[in-house]
What we know:
Blueprint: H1 7-20, H2 28-35, H3 39-51, E1 55-57, E2 63-65, H4 68-73, H5 76-95, E3 98-105, E4 108-115, E5 131-133, H6 138-148, E6 157-160, E7 167-173, E8 182-189, H7 197-212
Antiparallel strand pairs: 1-2, 3-4, 3-8, 4-5, 6-7, 7-8
Organism: Streptomyces aquilus
Domain IclR-ED: 68-213
GO molecular function: DNA binding; DNA-binding transcription factor activity
Amino acid sequence: xxxxxxxxxxxxxxxxxxxxxxxxxxxxxxxxxxxxxxxxxxxxxxxxxxxxxxxxxxxxxxxxxxxxxxxxxxxxxxxxxxxxxxxxxxxxxxxxxxxxxxxxxxxxxxxxxxxxxxxxxxxxxxxxxxxxxxxxxxxxxxxxxxxxxxxxxxxxxxxxxxxxxxxxxxxxxxxxxxxxxxxxxxxxxxxxxxxxxxxxxxxxxxxxxxxxx
Length: 213
């Protein structure tokens, strides 16, 4: 800690991070041990966070992340979209296909940013806000691949006709971005994805990841 920082705020943020990393919540004693502070301090932190709906406590006394976090999270998508747009524009213009950034939203893949090429005669209409199951389409499958393969190895994913007849997709997962699970990809009207597209999509995913770090 430095003179310019707040110890109380730092501890409150650490509480939220600890709760976000567990599915079953934490007790006051567990939080006290993890933070290295006494239980009285933890009680005060939890009471303050509860007032803002950022933390809730169940009947057993275990603290969990509260629904107030969702209100803060709604502002994340615009920030992520803005950071990703330069790489998506470059990808769309280079490949001549619709480029997109897709994030996980529950059990679905949600397109939060879409850029269409300016010079093609036709391309796939793919809109921000489009949702689909994670296990269908290149964008969702790329995200799932990052969950199941060792870090740094997922590469890119190719699909054809899974979301729209006659359309092919290529996507690569975002890697190394804390708190963001998603992918960058393109969708095109083609029977197969040209060979150079996969590596180009991986480059774009790296660019977006760097912009978000």
